[in-house]
Amino acid sequence: MLADHPAVAAELARLDAVADAREAAAAEARDAGDDAAVYVEEVAGRARWAADRARALATDASARPVPAKSIPRVHCSRLSLATFRREYVARKEPVVICGLGPHLTEDGERGDGLGWLTRHGANKKVAVTRDNAHVNSTLACADTEILDLGEHLARVLPLDAPNLPEDAEGFGSRGCDGTYLYDCAMPLKLPSLLNAVRVPRYFAHDFLQRTRDVHAFTASWPSLFVAAPHTKSSLHVDQWRGNFWMAMVRGTKRWTLFHDEAVPYLSPDYGRGTLDPAFPRMHVMDAAHASWRRRNANAADDDDDDDDPFEAFMAGIADEVKAAPSPRPAHTAANKSTRAALDDDDDDDPAIPIPGPPIKTSSSGRSTPNDTSASPPPSA
Questions:
Q1: How far is residue 54's CA from residue 265's CA, in Å, rounded to a whole number?
Q2: What is the pTM assigned to this prediction?
Q3: Taking CA 378 as the corner, what is the angle to CA 373 and CA 380, rounded to the nearest 5 degrees?
Q4: pLDDT for 218-250, tens place per residue?
Q5: Residue 5 phi, psi dihedral angles, 5° rounding
C-alpha cells in the first residue's frame, strides 16, 4: 500500500502533526474566549482536511486528483456580462478574456506604452524587491529598495532588449534582473493612478469593497505589478480563498493553476497558523518530478521494473493536477518579459488571469501584441 512507503508515511505524519498542533491552538483560543478563535479554528479545519485528503489518496487506489483541463480563451467582443456570469462565475470556471487591451487605461490602444503610468506615477516612491525576494515567507528590509516608480521603469524596460533567457550567460548580472514591484495597492500607495486605469465591467462588482465594516484589505485593490523578465511568484493560496482577476497591460505571464482539491498533495504547511499554507518552491517539486522522469527513462529497457512506486505516484499527480483550474486555486506565475499588470482579489469572480492587450510568445520568450478587433468598451 502506498501509505507504507517511507516518504509517503513521513509526509502523512507531518500533515497529521501540523493538524494536531493547529487543533490544540484552536481549542486554547476557544477556551480563552479569544476574538481570533474563529480564525484559528478555520486554520485548524483546513490543516485537518489536508491531512485527511492526503491519507485517503495514499490508502485508496480509486482516489485520484481532479484531471487537468484547458482554460478557454474568449474575445471580449463575444462575451457579454450576462454570459460571463452565467458561464464562468456561476460555474466557477476560469477564463482568459482577450481583446481588453484598448480598454484598460486612459491611453486606449497605446496603453502598453505605459505613458499613463509615467504621467501619473513616475515620481511616486515604491518598494521594489530584489532577486525574487517577494516569494519568501519573510521579507527583510535588505531585500527591498525604495525608489521612484519612474526609476524602476527605466531600469526594467530595457531588459527586454534583448530578453535574455534565465540560462543565458550574463543573466542575473544586470543590476535589475529579478526586481519586482509586487502587489502595490493603488488606492493606498498610488492613488494618482486610479483615474488612469479602467476596471473591466466583468469585475466591477467587488464584494470585498462593499462590506459594512472596514477590513485589512478594504483599500488594497486594484494593485499594480511591474516586474523584470523571468521574475516569479511562489506557489500560494490567497488567504481569503476568494477569487482573482489580473489584467496584462504589457508583457507575458505564464500561470500554473492547481485545483483546490489538489492542495493536500502539494505538501501544504499550516504550521505558521495562517489560512494560506506555505508550499515548497515550485522548482523543487519540478526538479523531483524531472528526476523521476529521467530515472524512469533510463530504466525503460530494464527487464526488472524497480521504479519507486511513490515517485511514480507523485509524478502522476503532477501530470494530472498541473494547470487544473479551480475557483479557489493554488497558483504560481512567472513573467517571461518585462511586465505591467493590474490585479484584484475580487471575492465575486473566478480565478481569471486576463491578458490585455492579448499577447503571443515567440521562441525567444518575448511578447508581441496580437491584433484586436473593434469591440464595445467593456469598462465599467
A1: 6
A2: 0.74
A3: 160
A4: 888 899 999 998 888 888 887 666 778 899 999
A5: -65, 135
